[in-house]
């Protein structure tokens, strides 16, 4: 009897192990099937009459798309987000569609579906349920709102409906996705602000600690930092050319080139000029202008303007620009006897190119022919810009009163 019981127990345990093994195999095959059901990224946009779906799948073969009055089924094999795989999805629409007039087009890297609505109306969402699948995205390039139907020209949601655009982005990816251009401009303006703030802070701290004795050592202490930030300013000539900022590139070209001419040719190349007090005052003036200008640009990029910062940007130049131009003129004027003595950058005859160039004469011409007219042009430009920026606010306040 005990042997029989033992044999029965052994057989029962064996059956239980086999049942568990079968259950594990079924779960593994089911999970494998679920993992293999991949969906491509689908971007949608709408008008009052139709829905547009852009399916990101390259070389889709064989392709199966079935439109029903309430849904669409898709299945194809191609190159998607997970490489070469079989992708499929099922969308149950918010409202009914006209399945007979709906169609699709196949391209090399995508598939476009044109889905006709059964009636003219704007849908609050694409899918029937409030929760949308993670692979369904908004096609911002084609996105339109109900207000656009009243306009003859299509409008850009990024500019004309920036609040709606930010809301859709938050719903789509959980945060506001900034363009590469915006991110670059934020980092550039912030970096330049930190650079000039560093220069101004070092000069102020050293002067507070050591007094006027530190003035001849200004270039020695912050000269390298000033050269770095001034070289970076050449990017500001490219910004309007590539559409990163508005305005005429000739204005930053004249300003940046003039500053670097004074910094690298008049100060860097002449050691006797580096210890002059005028360099101390020039660096302070440049830094004061920029620690206000770059934060103003930074707030403009992120669309958070500050009234006080705007007023400072277009007011502080009135005393500082003439003082900076005066310091630059003094540096050039003081350098004329130095360059006449050393003949630096001058080319005398005879030479193999049969060419002559006198640096001292060039400095005199530059001082009279470029500094003075250029200063007038720059000051006139800033005065007009100030009238536009601050004049509008005054008019708005008067109308509100």
List keywords for this structure.
401 residues, alpha+beta, Immunoglobulin-like, 5-stranded mixed sheet, 3-stranded antiparallel sheet, 12 helices, 8 strands, 57% helix
Q: What is Rg?
A: 35 Å
Tally of structural domains: 2
N→C terminal distance: 108 Å
Mean pLDDT, nearest integer? 82
Strand content: 5-15%
Strand order of the largest sheet: 6-7-2-1-8
Number of strands: 8
Number of helices: 12
Largest sheet: 5 strands, mixed
Protein name: Very-long-chain (3R)-3-hydroxyacyl-CoA dehydratase
Domain CS: 37-127
EC number: 4.2.1.134
Membrane topology: Multi-pass membrane protein
Task: Report on this structure.
The chain contains 12 helices and 8 strands. The chain has about 400 residues and is α+β, with helices and mostly antiparallel strands. The chain has 2 domains: about 110 residues, Immunoglobulin-like (Sandwich); about 200 residues, no CATH class. Strands 6-7-2-1-8 form a 5-stranded mixed β-sheet, with no helix packed on it. Strands 3-4-5 form a 3-stranded antiparallel β-sheet, with no helix packed on it. A hairpin with a 2-residue loop joins β4 and β5. The radius of gyration is 35 Å and the shape is elongated. The termini are far apart.
């Amino acid at each position: 009897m005990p042997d029989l019981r033992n044999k029965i127990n052994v057989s029962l345990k064996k059956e239980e192990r086999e049942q568990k093994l079968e259950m594990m195999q079924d779960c593994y095959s089911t999970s494998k099937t679920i993992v293999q059901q991949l969906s491509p990224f689908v971007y949608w946009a709408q008008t009052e009459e139709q829905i547009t779906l852009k399916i990101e799948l390259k070389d889709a073969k064989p392709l199966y798309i079935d439109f029903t009055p309430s849904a669409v089924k898709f299945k194809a094999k191609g190159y998607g987000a997970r490489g070469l795989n079989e992708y499929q999805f099922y969308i149950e629409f918010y409202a009914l569609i006209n399945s007979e007039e709906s169609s699709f087009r196949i391209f090399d890297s995508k598939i476009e579906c044109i889905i006709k609505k059964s009636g003219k109306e704007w849908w609050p969402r694409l899918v029937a349920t409030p929760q949308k699948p993670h692979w369904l995205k908004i096609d911002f390039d084609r996105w339109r709102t109900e207000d656009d139907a009243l306009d003859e020209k299509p409008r850009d949601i990024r500019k004309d409906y920036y609040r709606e655009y930010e809301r859709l982005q938050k719903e789509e990816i959980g945060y506001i996705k900034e363009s590469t251009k915006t991110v670059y401009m934020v980092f550039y303006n912030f970096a330049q602000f930190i650079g000039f703030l560093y220069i101004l802070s070092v000069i102020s701290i050293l002067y507070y600690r050591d007094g006027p004795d530190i003035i001849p050592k200004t270039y020695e202490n912050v000269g390298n930092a000033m050269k770095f930030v001034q070289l970076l300013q050449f990017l500001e000539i490219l910004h309007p050319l590539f559409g990163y900022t508005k305005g005429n590139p000739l204005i930053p070209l004249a300003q940046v080139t003039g500053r670097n001419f004074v910094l690298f040719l008049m100060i860097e190349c002449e050691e006797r000029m580096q210890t002059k007090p005028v360099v101390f005052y020039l660096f302070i003036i440049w830094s004061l202008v920029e620690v206000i200008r770059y934060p103003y640009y930074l707030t403009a990029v992120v669309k958070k303007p500050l009234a006080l910062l705007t007023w400072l940007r277009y007011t502080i130049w009135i005393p500082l620009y003439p003082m900076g131009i005066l310091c630059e003129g003094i540096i050039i004027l003081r350098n004329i006897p130095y360059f006449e003595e050393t003949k630096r950058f001058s080319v005398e005859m005879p030479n193999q190119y049969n060419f002559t160039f006198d640096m001292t004469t060039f400095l005199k011409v530059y001082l009279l022919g470029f500094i003075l007219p250029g200063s007038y042009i720059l000051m006139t430009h800033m005065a007009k810009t100030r009238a536009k920026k601050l004049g509008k606010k005054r008019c708005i306040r008067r109308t509100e009163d």
